[in-house]
Amino acid sequence: MKLEEFEKASECFTQGKKLPAANDKEIFDKLQQGNHCSALLRNASRSLGSFAEFESEFECTLCLQLFYNPSTLPCGHTFCQHCLETATTFTNKCPLCRTIFHFHDSKPPVTITLKNIIEKLFKEEYAARAAQTSQKTRRTFRIPLLVMNLVCFPGEQLPLHIYETKYRTMFKRILQGCRHFGLVLDSPSNGINTIGCSLVIDQCEGLPDGRLIVQCNALKRFRIISREMVDGYWYAEVEYLQDVLPATDDALFEMHQLIDTVREMAAKAATKNSLAAEHTEQLQQIVTYNSQIPTNTPEECNRFSYWVCAMLPIASSLKQPLLEMDSGSERLFRVISLLDRVSRTSAGCGLL
Q: Which residue from 84, 169, 252, 271 has the fewest beta carbons nearer than 10 Å?
C-alpha cells in the first residue's frame, strides 16, 4: 500500500471522528465510509509492516544494491544487467547455480515487468541507482585481445591458427562465452595499437596437440579505453566506433566516383611486372568486382571501402591508418594514393 494512500485513509478516519450530529441515513453512510477507511488502514499497516521482509529480495547478489535494469536468466536467478555482463564475460554460466545459458545477443535482456515493479516500489532509490550507474556506465564493452602483426576490416573473413599457450587459454574461454574478441596490431612504440576490429568465432577445430584452427568474421571497429593483463593476454574495455556515411546525394555521387577511380588505379597497378603473382591477383579482384558487392546505398559504399582495404596487398603498418579512418570517402582517397604509388614505382615496390 502506498504511503499517500495511508495518509489519505488516516485523514478520512480523523474527519469521520469530527462529524456533527446527523440523521440515521447520514450516520449509516458515514459508518460505511468509516469501515472502508479502517480496511485501508489495516491493509496499509500490514503492507508497511511486512515491507522490510521482502525488501532484500530486490537486491542484486553481485553488487548488493537495488536491482538496476534487472535481467533474469533461464534458471530463474536475477542480477543487474551490468553486473551480469561483467560476471559472464568469459563464461555462459549463471554466477550462482552455474546453469549454462545462451543469449542471441551478448547483452542480457532486461526483465521489463520486474523493472516496472521496482521503479514503482522504490521510486527514489531507483532514480538514485540510475544516476549512479549513468556516471559509471559508458557505451563500452570488455573483450579479450589477440595481438599480432595483422589488420582486418569489418566484413572480412579471417582464418586463424592459434598455437601459443596464452591464446589457447583465451580462446577456450571465449568459446564458453559470447565467442567475441578483438584483433589489434602489434605496435613497437606502446605494445599495441588503440584501434582494432572485433571478431566473432564462426567455426573452431581443435587439434590433438591443443592447437586451434579458427574461422572468424570481422564485425566492427573499436577503440581501447583501458586494458589489463589476464593470464598472459590483454583484456580490454573498448568502445565501438561509428562510421561517417555520405549524408547527401552529392556526397554519395562523389563516393561512386572514388570507387570508379579505385578500379582504374587497381587495373593500372596490376600491370606492373614487378608485382608478385598473388598481389596481381588481389588487384585484379578489385578491378573485376561484381554484383556480389553492390554500391547503391551509403552503407554498401562503406562496406566496399572496407573490402578494398582488406584486398590491398600492402603491409599491415599501412593498413592500420585505413582502419582508423571514420569516413569511407577518406579511406578511398587514401587507397587511391597508395595505388598511385604502386603504379609509379619503376623497379619493385617496397610497400607491398
A: 271
Alpha-carbon gap, residue 154 to 37, rounded angstroms = 66
Q: What is the CATH number of the domain that holds 171?
A: 2.30.130.40
Count CA atoms closer than 13 A to 77's CA, side-chain side.
Answer: 16
The pLDDT, as a whole number, for residue 22 is 47
**Cell numbers describing residue 40:** 485501508
End-to-end C-alpha distance for the chain, whole angstroms? 74
Q: What is the DSSP string of 243-269?
A: PB---SHHHHHHHHHHHHHHHHHHHHH
Number of domains forming the structure of the chain: 4
By the 8 A CB rule, do 238 and 226 touch?
Answer: no
Note whether residue 352 is domain-resident: no
253 shares a domain with 166:
no
Beta strands 212-230; 233-240: pairing state? antiparallel
Q: How far apart are CA 80 and CA 239, in angstroms?
A: 21
Do residue 24 and residue 84 come from a single domain? no
For 323, residues 6+ apart whose C-beta sits below 8 A from its C-beta are 151, 153, 195, 196, 197, 221, 309
Classify residue 24: in a domain, yes or no: yes
Most confident option among 96-110, 188-202, 272-286: 188-202
CATH number for the domain harbouring residue 109 = 3.30.40.10
Q: What is the pTM of this model?
A: 0.64
Residue 231 confidence (pLDDT): 85
Quote the CA–CA distance of 35 and 29 in Å, as a whole number: 10
Q: Is residue 349 part of a domain?
A: no
Give the chain's length: 352
351 domain-assigned: no
Quick one: what percent of the chain has pLDDT higher than 90? 25
Which domain, by its residues, includes 174? 145-240
> Does the pLDDT value for residue 163 go beyond 90?
yes
Per-residue pLDDT band for 347 (boundaries 50, 70, 90) equals very low
DSSP H helical segments within 93-248, as ranges?
Answer: 112-121, 123-136, 165-176
Backbone dihedral angles phi then psi of residue 269, each to the nearest 5 degrees: -70, -30
Q: How far apart are CA 50 and CA 53, in angstroms?
A: 5
- Across the range 3-10, mean pLDDT stands at 59
Domain end point (choices 93, 108, 136): 136
